[in-house]
Predict the 3D structure of the following.
Amino acid sequence: MHTITPEPVTAAAFAPFGEVVSLDDTPKLPIDLYNGLNAIHGPVVLQADERPEFILFRVGYRGGDIRYLERHHGMTQTFIPLNGDPYVSVVAPPDAPLVDGFPDFASIRAFLVPGDVILNIHRGTWHEPPFPTRDGQKFFITSTPGVTGGLKSAVDGNGEVHKLDVDKRNPVYRTGKRLRVAMP
């Protein structure tokens, strides 16, 4: 069993995996159409080789077991929390060294993310869907037909998915070890 302890998310610490989108970390644009009442920050750029789409994701509390790490090469993926509750993001960089076809455990990090902070991960970043800190949290997630279609596929005999733009790998099958994140 290998356990990863989440660290508070910061723009600098998360930079190898993507960008932190928040009022503190995203540049304020010089737009003032309402006498200073509104603040506009951005832009946050979604990259996609296919037509972008959104999926609504209700996440059941699943403890800290990491069942998969997955990646998508055809798009950046954005996780937008809707409940305001904190969540945990587990990621490994796109160029993480592979051990037995799975990202080296030493390259995997976990971040505790406030419920008003969005993560926009780089193409190819290994990740699990957000880990909720309570049952039933909701997220709006960017996708493409290749990601959504791949996720609709059944897992293979090894408990993995390798369809369209989904490369979803099982740590137990690949390494013989369980991987978990220490939930707050």
Observations:
- The chain has a mean pLDDT of 97.
- Helices lie at 11-14, 145-151, 171-175.
